[in-house]
Each structure stands twice: as structure tokens, then as C-alpha cells.
Amino acid sequence: MKFHVVLEKQDEGGYTAYIPELPGCVSQGETKNEAMGNIGEARELYMDEFKRLL
Q: How is the chain split into domains, by residue range?
């Protein structure tokens, strides 16, 4: 399953990443690569919890 990731550069430094299709699935990182890796982990945890609730 593929999701859109929105990556936003923060004025104070680093990046925030979120997945619009998964409300509340947000992460951050100091670099783009770190933020993308972190949002990937957040997505996995989000989906694991979603499956558990079904």
C-alpha cells in the first residue's frame, strides 16, 4: 500500500513529515532522509495498531 508523504522544512531547522491519509501520523528529523525514515517507522506502527483494532 502506498501513501503520500508531505515533507516540510522547519524555520528552526530540520523537517516535519506527515501522511495525510493517516490522521496523526507525524514525525520529524534533522535531515530529509532522517525524516523520511522516521515517518516510515511511524507508518508501520500506525498500521500495526490499526490492524490490532480490527
A: 6-53
